Structure formats: structure tokens, C-alpha cells
Fold this sequence. Notes:
Chorismate Mutase Domain, subunit A, about 20% strand, Rossmann fold, 5-stranded antiparallel sheet, about 300 residues
Amino acid sequence: MVDQAETVLFRRDRGSGEDGLAGMAASRSLGAARLIRPLLGWRKADLIATCAALAQDFLDDPSNKSPRFARAALRARLAADPDLRGEVDALAAELAQPRAERLRALWNPLAACVEIRPDGAACLDQAALANLSVEDRRAVVAATLLTVGGNAFAPKGESVSRLADAMTGQGFRGGSLAGCAIRPWRASLLICREPRAMATPVTLISGEWTLWDGRFLARGVCCDAGVTVGALGVAGFATLRNRHKFDAPAILGAGLPAIRVDGALVAAPHLEWAEDGAPSIEMRFTPRWPLSSERFTVV
Length: 299
């Protein structure tokens, strides 16, 4: 409960919206796993007393008391002002249920408008998007940007509203927001990663899963040192498309994950291409925020 109060106070001080002020969720998907906080509503004193009664060891993180961290100052404010603590707890409790209801109400609009591709991009039905209410349209676009972009936080509401309105206009030619590029493609609107916003390459360790760009988990099987995963890039995709006639827009192709050995391109898993002798790589699209949460209840 202390961590929850600190989170809400931190977000309130920084002008967060209603979803942020609802605090941490008791259950949320992390793509490859589900984070469950069954003791979120417990107070620290009760947790300590329970551990003591059960002779259960526990750790007290010393950083919680360090003045170098913002949370220590927030904790001190809450401890010194019971009225503030009550106000923050009440605010989180008041907004948590409406947030959960908004997420549930978004399932149908998302299903009607959005298709997530295995390569991490999304296709939006422009006509279906235009038929939504203004609020649902903004929520669908925000959720899609969060999933495709691999970011920890959603973009600002005003920016999303302007983009969502533009995307349903007849003359829409494209835009960008939250590390994503939006382009008309065929009969849909394509949302993919903006290549220049993508993470730098990371080295794969044989047998271990590594997260790249907040979206893809990759694991090398018996791979040697010097194997990395990073963006395919404009030049890399152009070379492969010229050789193999891959049917994808260049901006999507440039942002696809690629495998390199000592800097040399050897594989592009989502294009189903690899050089002979390329290391065996497992790869999964596991965004921080899946497009919609599973129907999973903590009681």
C-alpha cells in the first residue's frame, strides 16, 4: 500500500491523467509473463507483522530510505501528513474501477479495428476507426501505439487525439508519434516502429532470453560470441527486398529485427531469410503492453 500511495502521489505531482492516478494494477500483462500484485492493498506494518508471525525472512530495501531517490521524499511526505495519505489512497480507489471498466469496454473496438502482425506492426481499418466514438477512437490509437512502440508509457492525450482525428480524414498521408510511424498501406493504416527511434543492437547470450526494443525476446541456441539483434535498417532491407522480392513497405522492413554476427547481416527472422550457417535464433513478439489485457481476475 505504501508503494501504491507513492506511485499515485508521484504521478499526481507530475500532472498524470486518470489512468495514471488509478495507481498500479493488481494484475497486468507483461507480454511474456503476467505480473500479479496480490498484496498491493496491504500496509507495510501488516506485511511485516505477518512475516514475523510466520517466522518468514524478508528484505528491507535500503534504497527506500535513501534521499537520493524521489520515492524516499514522497514516503516522508506521506508519513508526515495523514490527511495527504488518505487523500491519495481515496483517489486511487476511486479511479481504479473506472480504469478497469474502460479497458474492458475497449475489447470490442480493438477487435473491430486492429490486427497485430507477427512482425510487431499493426494494421488499422480506417473505416471502422472512423465509425467509433471520439473517445474510443483515441483509446484504440493510444493502445496500438503503446503496443507497437514498446514504450513504458502512453503518449500525451492531446497528441493522440490530434493524430486519431487526422487518421480518419480522407487526405491522411501519414504521421508519427511515440516512436511509431503511421502510413496508409493498401486498404489499411499501417502502424510500425519508426526506424530512427529503435533501440541499439544488443548482444545475445547463448541459451538466455534477451529483450530488444521493448518488444522482441530473442534467444540464441548454441550461438557464439558476437551475435546481436538490432534493426534491419533501410540499407539492409533494400538489399534483401531486391534479392527476394519481399512484399512489405520499406519503413516496416527497416524496423524489423535482424541478426548479425560480428556486424555482418546473417538473418531476418520475420522475412524467413537466413544465410547458410547462420546461428539458430528463437524470437517472440512480446510487447510491454499487449494490445488488450487477458480476461484474468485476481480475487
